[in-house]
Amino acid sequence: MTTNSLTLARCGIKLANITNIAGLGSLLLLASCANTPQNQTTQVSNAPVSHVLEAAHVDADKLLNRITWGANASSSQELRAAGMDRYLEQQLRGRVAILPPAIQAQIDSMTITQRPFDQLMQDLETRRITAEKQKGIDDTLGKDYQQELSRLAKEAATRSLLRAVYSQNQLQEQMSWFWMNHFNIHNGKANERALLGDFEERAIRPNALGNFHDLLRATVLHPAMLRYLDNDQNAVNRINENYARELMELHTMGVGSGYSQGDVQELARVLTGFGVNQNPDTPKMKAELQRLYVRNGIFEFNPQRHDFGDKKILNKVVHGRGLPELDEVITLLSRQPATAQFISRKLAIYFVSDTPSDALVSKMAQRFLQTDGNIPAVLRSMFESPEFIASLGNKFKDPMHYVVSSIRLAYDGNPIMNTGPMLNWLNMLGQQTNGRQTPDGYSMQESAWASAGQMAMRFDVAKSLANNNPGLFKIDNQPAPPRPPQPALVNSPYVKNWANSFSVGTQQALMQANSPQEWNAFFLASPEMMRR
Amino acid sequence: MNRRDLLKAFAALSATSISSSLFAAPATQNRLLIVFLRGGYDASNLLIPTSSNFYYEARPNIAIARPMSGNNPGATADLNAALELNADWGLHPALRDSIYPLYQKGEAAFIPFAGTDDLSRSHFETQDSIELGQPLVGTRNFHSGFLNRLADVLNGTPAMSFTDQLPIVMQGKARIANTSLRSPGKSNVDNRQSKIITQMYSQTGLAQQVTEGFAVREEVSREMQEEMNSANRNAISTKGFELEARRIAKMMREKYALGFVDVGGWDTHVNQGGASGTLASKFDELGRGLVAYQQEMGDAWRNTTVVVLSEFGRTFRENGKRGTDHGHGSVYWVLGGGIKGGQVAGEQIQLEQPKLFQNRDYPVLNEYRAVLGGLFAGIYGLNASQLDHVFAGVKARNIGLV
Asked: Quick one: three-class SS letters along chain B?
């Protein structure tokens, strides 16, 4: 382990004493500071690859279904070329991802790609203020402003879905979704619709396969989180404890893990002054406070609003001194054994079973503590466990997995042009992108997604997916293509071959199909397609 | 043959694959709907402790004014003041046209200082523990909710969760289906296809969910068709929770004896408002929805009970941003055509600063399992062992509402 001390000049934030794992230095990114989208640039290691999965004769397609957003012909080919263990290794490292040109072009043309975030947010604020002044005189301005927020949210959701379907870095995309859900933010609050894309791009995704400490820090310093959990309203003597509570309960240690109401209140005091400022001006204040003021785009630490008294959190005294208190607390929280347990259990529920064994969780938590929160190391200890291997094929898909895996199978190599139908299906299935109102995120357990109402809805979606859906290939403001591409299901040797391994009941149903579309529908509706 | 009989006949014809319990006529005339307000609603601004000076000190910006005193009959009513319930309590003015008249008719009651002993002040933890309805100490079964156990005790009473996922409260041994009525669409899977899919699942662990899922979907689309037809005739346009509640009432009237629905968005940390504002609009919407439910139930309202609850109340004092943070004790509502309403029920105390729990919240004096147990015992005539199945180890308390 090495200890770095670095200053990110552009942000004006000094990161003191951040412990970092050798070899993962390039992952240490202060996400909300960087101004260009990053590609993961971790070097390919020459470290020997284990042979755990191969030795266990794991079913390759089942493995793909679990560590990617869904097996399809091309990923299967990729895995077979690399070998199972090396493929996993590559996925854990997150190579530079190349997207199909048609997909990359869609992402490149988005406003959230083209416009610097801070500028975009300042312009939106100007529009909001103008619209507010015109209220009652000209309401179209307010309506236009709201529509623009929704359009930006749709861009972010689309980008996320396109990457889930087409990126080669499947595990990184799955982990991005996992952390987006763990650090859930709701689209419906204030102007979150415009903030979410940047939150995902710069706080979550670059750290999805990085270090938990850095990930946590990036979320705490992101305006999207500060606004969602009301911390932009948290000031000295006007404490708002909402974020402090969820930070301990949902983001790090977990409820009932040993912190008290007093700890929540003290943490809320540490968090005073961290907020959002969408105006170009900075507040005026005395010179000695001015020195402590930090501005990074629309993120702001305003010392005038900060409680400079000493705090006591988890029996540790945190000396009041401004922003560095936060770093101290983030380190404290991310190194708690309770945090290691809580995060490990959540990962195991997502990737292994609704009820992972305590032994597996403890093993992962130990790895978490040993590596100071190195996410790939924790994941590897899970992926190589007998419990993980035994669980392949059993985990019930949540709607996101169901929709994305179906599209990956149906349109492998045939880039879709419009995610509108996918977004709609996710809505129907109760898992709207960034639509979870509460900060706990969507459930990852079967009981939440396998109820009667859910199953019936899923078959509706299966049928819509199974027909060659023109909506998926319609570019906005242009006529739909007369003959959209067929979903490659019944005509795909890969799918046909896979279906041969399905149960007798499923095969009998497939034989009763009256048309290729109906075969596709039954295939997508099958019990086998509900699990990963 | 009237419409209802006709529908039943159709259902019987097309329902060969449908489980018989799903559409069996309810064995009991009683209808119970639980409405869960998720987010810990600010009960202190719903049921206003008008006799407490401390309330007005603790909430300088968001308190609801005392009702106009009766010794000035000529004065115009203050539309922003609390509606007088008794000497100690008033009701939020947003409920003037919905719940207040019900209260005056004796069909609504409130239980202050209600809730759980769970002290985490976490939404999710507390919602879970209320839905489970199990003791807080010892091992808990996370797949056994109290409404499921009630359905189990009532032996095949048809129950439905009007939510898009099956909530914990409805999970457990009794098979209970779910369907959201917020914006139900029409199914595109035809009869032949649904039979083939049902067959495909017959040997799997999901067989029952699939069968019930199709049956409920069909039922819902029939109801929606009916709704469209009548909407065209009567041009009633409702939306939001009011529309949802109307739909729920139709299905509760005809098919289900036990129902659950949740309403989110009560976590008001910032600018919650007072007589008007964010929270007032939520109360208004909820009140109108509950009255829509009452109207749609028609004659069945006489045998209907609605309980409105939430995971906790909020801090008694307003915070620096004119909102409230997570608290402890809450106020539950009980509505129904046959209840002894028109009262504020259960154990109560005068609200002064030293009486606050941990100097910030309402204490819990009416533990929810004891209170609900008493309510269920009264409604269904449950014996001690049946009650123990629903709320193990809890002594039910009759607070005189049924």
From this structure: CCHHHHHHHHHHHHCCCCCHHHHCCCCCCCEEEEEEECCCCCHHHCEECCCCHHHHHHCCCCCCECCCCCCCCCCCCCCCECEECCCCCEECHHHCCCHHHHHHCCCEEEEEEEECCCCCCCHHHHHHHHHHCCCCCCCCCCCCCHHHHHHHHCCCCCEEECCCCCCHHHCCCCCCEECCCCCCCCCCCCHHHHHHHHHHCCCCCCHHHHHHHHHHHHHHHHHHHHHHHHHHHHCCCCCHHHHHHHHHHHHHHHCCCEEEEEECCCCCCCCCCCCCCHHHHHHHHHHHHHHHHHHHHHHHHHHEEEEEEECCCECCCCCCCCCCCECCCEEEEEEECCCCCCEECCCCCCCCHHHCECCCECCCCEEHHHHHHHHHHHHHCCCHHHHHHHCCCCCCCCCCCC
Model confidence, pTM: 0.84
Q: What is the pLDDT of residue B143?
A: 84
Q: Flag whether residue B324 sits within 8 Å of chain A, measured between CB atoms.
A: no
Residue of A nearest to B181 (CA): A453
Tell me, what's the pLDDT at B11?
44
Q: State whether A454 and B210 contact (CB < 8 Å).
A: no
- Rounded to a whole number of angstroms, the distance from the CA of A337 to the nearest CA of chain B is 20
Average pLDDT over residues B96-101: 97
Question: How confident is the model over A1-20, as pLDDT tens digits?
Answer: 333 433 333 333 333 333 33
B266: pLDDT strictly greater than 90? yes
B163 vs A contacts (CB less than 8 Å) = 453
Is the CB of residue B188 less than 8 Å away from at least one CB of chain A? yes
Higher per-residue confidence, A419 vs A13: A419
pLDDT digits (tens, 9 = 90+) for A152-185: 999 999 999 999 999 999 999 999 999 999 999 9
Choose the closest CB to B189 out of A249, A255, A460.
A460
Q: Hey, is the C-beta of B250 within 8 angstroms of any chain A C-beta?
A: no
**Cross-chain Cβ contact A452/B212 below 8 Å:** yes
Which pLDDT does position A46 carry in this prediction?
A: 55
CA distance B215 to chain A (A): 9
Determine, for residues B196 and A512 on separate chains, whether the beta-carbon distance falls below 8 Å: yes
Q: What is the pLDDT of residues A341-363, one digit of tens each?
A: 999 999 999 999 999 999 999 99
Q: Which residue of A has its CA nearest to B326?
A: A242
